[in-house]
Amino acid sequence: MKYFTRMKIRRVYEWSGRARSFNRRLKTHDYDSFAISVEGLSKIIINTGQHILIEGYDEDNPYVAKVTRLYGDENGQQMKAVVQWFMRVSELPVNKLKLLGREPHPQEIFYYECRNCDNEVNVESILRPVKVKHLDSNDPFPDSSDKDTLYVKLSWDSKVFGVVNSTVMESPAEPAPASSPPSCLKPSLPISPSCSQSAATPRGPSRRVLPTPDHAIMQKASLGEVDHHFLTVSLLFLQISPGTPKTPRHATPSIPIRSLQTQQPANILEEARARLHVSSVPESLPCREQEFQDIYSFVESKIIDNTGGCMYISGVPGTGKTATVHEVIRCLQHAADMDEIPSFHFIEINGMKMTDPHQAYVQILQKLTGQKATPDHAAVLLEKRFSNLAPRKETIVMLVDELDLLWTRKQNVMYNLFDWPTRRHARLVVLTIANTMDLPERIMINRVASRLGLTRMSFQPYSFKQLQEIIMSRLNKLKAFEEDALQLVSRKVAALSGDARRCLDICRRATEICEHSAADPSSTGLVGMSHVMEALNEMFSSAYITAIRCASTQEQLFLRAAIAEFRRLGLEEATFQQVFVQHQALCRIEGLRPIGVSEGLAVCQRLGACRLLLLEPSHLGVLQHIRLNVSQDDIFYALKAD
Ligand SMILES: Nc1ncnc2c1ncn2[C@@H]1O[C@H](COP(=O)(O)OP(=O)(O)O)[C@@H](O)[C@H]1O
Ligand SMILES: [Mg+2]
Predict the structure, then answer these.
(1) Which UniProt keywords apply (predicted)?
(2) Rounded CA separation 198/195 (Å)
(3) Nearest to residue 30, comparing CAs of 126, 170, 173, 210?
């Protein structure tokens, strides 16, 4: 490793020189410098105004900052530094780097203008000084023979890059007023960030999580009393953010932000759980870069060209469709805020959140105009609006999630969703998300399908490797799982469905099981194979699973037939007749005696009675519609494990 960390080397921190001033109210002294002594090496003196490296969770890339103030008590029990942060290239959101308009230099850092940043660290988290040079934004970067120097040209405020003038960089830190409470000591900047906190009451709504381990722990650590494992653990949980959902575009992936109002996670497992929660927005979406790019380009080009269009996005549940589209919209919205693209009006509806498909009209109208109307009236108004010749001001981007559920006998709702964007003056971009592949074909049968020119995109189920990567990236270096345990979950889920949501749920449950299991003295405290195995069993052993396992061979076969037919149709629904044809084919494949229609209907009714199937009234006979009341996963799982 290039840098020393306390985990390997014992270091001693002490004030160097006399206190410069004393704050009576807080009983703290201000200092100009302190010394770090590393065993066997000479002392390093660090002064205010100097650039330093601060321990983070990435050993190879410690945080970069400049000391603006040093204070604490005389005996060195409490040693604090107020700093100005800089961001490394690796700390910036990948999708923001394009705002630079050029390749970043590997040794480039950015003056971080951060609102509500926690700018106070424990002195013990400071590793060593570092050379930082200011360059004018037009200056070339020097030849990189000197790998140790970092260069600053620009500032970064979580949204845009700005120019840093050299006075900001070179001016020595302002001394803190001795008698007033310490204030935020940021040098003034062209775009001056609000300094909403003072060190005396360091309670910003959301603060940069510091690479500052708890003072007590560090105090002990520097005395060599704490074992390394404990230290590692403490460091880890202090540097991560509990499940505050974060938007990838507005947060910086490697510097988690946490709200101090939320309790600190009690331990690693709790933290892991927060990060794995399906409702927490991941910082990045690994394995979906291409899909992201394609959807982004599609919508962006429509917005720029003032045209409309429709994209049909399909894939089985848990393949990241919703997450990817939401991320695309966030990025586009940001681009619009930055005036990089024309602004647009985004609305979203979700088939799952509607009691009736015709509610879609009501909701769309309401979200577009604030008007309330009955479904029929709303349909008329929308039709008018989208065929109106007057060109609209803004492009409307409409996300229709869970489109499958907007299926109606007459298919009008779906048809309109595909049709409106083709109207010349609609300036409407519709993104539809569905679980089934060939819904459009099924709707278009008697209509002019080719006119609609649908752009399609399908999300493939995640492979074992991808699921593993997704979990790991969510955990973001938090070591909560044994390696083989993570592998097991990923393999199991990939074999069944490739559903990331399920994978996350099982991992979360496993952390709970691990936490509540009596600590085996030999255990590492991490989530292991046994915990994961128990979680897997639990997840797949609901009453329904038991019911499937206990069902007769013909009943089990009928369930498989239903799935086969749904897949063929690309729908979640079929008639008894259709399923029955599959059932007979399966009987032949399995070498079973094919059953007759009435026996088949009886099998179907029994499955309905135990709620594995949802059935239309039985007087419809072979024409009754059938739906599954359990996930296809559950059925595969129940039948495979046999
Ligand atoms: N590539 C990914 N990286 C990180 N998390 C993911 C990824 N894909 C899916 N997820 C997570 O899995 C869960 C399900 O994803 P979602 O987008 O809702 O799936 P879908 O809409 O396809 O059913 C969400 O919590 C989402 O954040
Ligand atoms: Mg979804």
Answers:
(1) ATP-binding, DNA replication, DNA-binding, Magnesium, Metal-binding, Nucleotide-binding, Nucleus, Phosphoprotein
(2) 8
(3) 173
Spacing, Cα 320 to ligand 2 middle (Å) = 7
- Pairing outcome for strands 257-258 and 309-314: unpaired
Q: How far apart are CA 16 and CA 165, in angstroms?
A: 31
Q: What is the dihedral of CA 246, 251, 255, 258, to 10 degrees?
A: -40
Residue 322 contacts residue 285 (beta carbons within 8 Å): no
Going by alpha carbons, the residue nearest to atom 1 of ligand 1 is 285
Out of 240-244, 275-279, 415-419, 424-428, least confident range: 240-244
pLDDT digits (tens, 9 = 90+) for 570-595: 788 899 999 999 999 998 888 888 89
Full strand arrangement of the beta sheet holding 625-628: 573-575, 625-628, 613-615
What's the number of CA atoms in the CB half-sphere (13 Å) around residue 607?
33
Tell me if residue 207 falls in helix, strand or coil. strand
pLDDT band at 459 (very low <50, low <70, confident <90, very high): very high
pLDDT at 33 over 90: yes
Q: CA–CA separation, 556 vs 548, rounded Å?
A: 7
CB atoms within 10 A of CB 148: 8
> Does 322 score more than 80 pLDDT?
yes
Q: 14-23, 76-85, 133-142, 324-333: which has the highest mean pLDDT? A: 324-333
**Which segments within 527-640 are labelled E, that is strand?**
573-575, 613-615, 625-628
Tally of residues, the chain: 642
pLDDT of residue 246: 28
Radius of gyration, CA atoms only, the chain: 30
What pLDDT shows up at residue 454? 79
Q: How far is the CA of 281 from the centre of ligand 1 (A)?
A: 9
CA of 630 to the centre of ligand 1 (A): 20
Distance CA 467, CA 499 (A): 8
Residue nearest to atom 2 of ligand 1 (CA): 285
Burial class (CB in 10 A: 0-12, 13-18, 19+), 366: middle
Nearest-CA residue for ligand 1 atom 15 is 320
Ligand showing the shortest atom-to-Cα distance for residue 468: 1
pLDDT of 250 reads 31
Q: Which residue has the tokens 């390997």?
A: 8
Q: Find how far residue 305's CA is from the centre of its chain.
A: 30
**Nearest bound ligand to the CA of residue 318:** 1
Q: Which pLDDT tens digit goes with each residue over 140-178?
A: 888 767 778 999 999 988 788 888 877 777 654 444 443
Query: Cα–chain-centroid distance for residue 433?
Result: 19
Q: Which residue has the higher pLDDT, 599 or 95?
A: 599
Residue 324 Cα, ligand 1 centroid: separation in angstroms?
Answer: 8
Nearest ligand for residue 276 CA: 1
| 175 in Cβ contact with 131 (< 8 Å) | no
pLDDT for 520 equals: 65
Strand partners, 15: 34
CA torsion 411→412→415→417, rounded to 10°? -120
Atom of ligand 1 nearest to the CA of 325: 17
- Largest alpha-carbon pair distance within the chain? 97
**Binding pocket residue ranges, ligand 1, CB within 6 Å:** 278, 282, 285-288, 315, 317-323, 470, 474, 500-501, 504
